[in-house]
Structure formats: C-alpha cells, structure tokens
Known about the structure:
Low-confidence stretches of chain A: none
Organism (chains A, B): Deinococcus taklimakanensis
Structural class of chain A: mainly alpha
Oligomer: homodimer
Domain Chorismate mutase (chains A, B): 1-92
Protein name (chains A, B): Bifunctional 3-deoxy-7-phosphoheptulonate synthase/chorismate mutase
Order of helices and strands of chain A: HHH
Amino acid sequence: xxxxxxxxxxxxxxxxxxxxxxxxxxxxxxxxxxxxxxxxxxxxxxxxxxxxxxxxxxxxxxxxxxxxxxxxxxxxxxxxxxxxxxxxxxxxxxxxxx
Amino acid sequence: xxxxxxxxxxxxxxxxxxxxxxxxxxxxxxxxxxxxxxxxxxxxxxxxxxxxxxxxxxxxxxxxxxxxxxxxxxxxxxxxxxxxxxxxxxxxxxxxxx
Lengths: 98, 98
C-alpha cells in the first residue's frame, strides 16, 4: 500500500488484532485450566501463586517493546491473571458438584 | 508428545503465549497511535468513542470460543481500551509541548 492508510483501514487492522488477541487469550485460558486440573489432581487446591505471577510480570516488563508503559502492560496482564484464577476456582467448584 | 504434559510444560506454554500477547498488544497500541494522530490531524480531538468500543465488544462476544465467559473477555478488552485512550491522550499532550 503506497497511500497513507485511512482511519477506516487502521480500524480494520485493530479489529483483526482484536480477533487474534481473543484467540490467544482463549488458548491461554485453556492451558491455565489444564494447570488448574493438574494442581487439583496433585492435591494442591491453592491456585493463587503470587510468586509465579510476579515472575511473569517481570519477564513481560523486560520484553515490553512499547509504546505502552510497563505499568499498563502490568495492568492488562493482571486482569488476565485475575480472570484465570476465577476460571480455575470455578472449575474446582464444578468438579465438587459432579 | 505422548506423555501428559507436566505443570512445568504447561507453564512454559503460558509463558510463550504471554510473549505473543505482548507482541500483539504492542502492535495494537501502535495502530491506535496512528489512529489518534490521524484524528488529531483532522481536527477531531475527541479520542473516546463509546460506540466504536461497543461494536468491538459485541464482535468479540460473538466470536468468543470460551472458556472465558463473555463478561471476562469484556473486562480484559476494556482494560486494553482504557490503556489505548490514555496513550492517545498522552501523545496529544506531548504534541502540544513540542
């Protein structure tokens, strides 16, 4: 494309990235579910692991290419961590009800 | 792999997905910056566009394959929207200072 992209072109690019993000976020949730089930099977009912979260955040902070500042990357991933923990705990509850 | 993956294997998979998410989130932020600059150049200083956010959320809700519930996908993307808006507004301020 030799022309400057229009706002509509750029929004279409954002929509495409949104869909890729959704796919990745969902794949991550599936892996987290497997980890949750493995922990539960090993008799480790505590899913919250602040040290593991801290390691992930530190790595992401180091790799962050910008333009988002580190604090923003942290906030987004903390939202993902919170959601993942809720999913693991909800799966435990469902397993208890079966 | 024929063996069941260990928790460590699964965590390595999460770390890999984290890095892909970081790349995509950063690429999305770059496109949003271009949109912000294009809007500012057109004399549209208002970056917040709730109708556009609503359309994105609706599409993501429709495409959501799970396991995260729709409300979780919404919360994660709202965090990304909030960060994007802050980035556009911070770029405007920087442009004013130049």
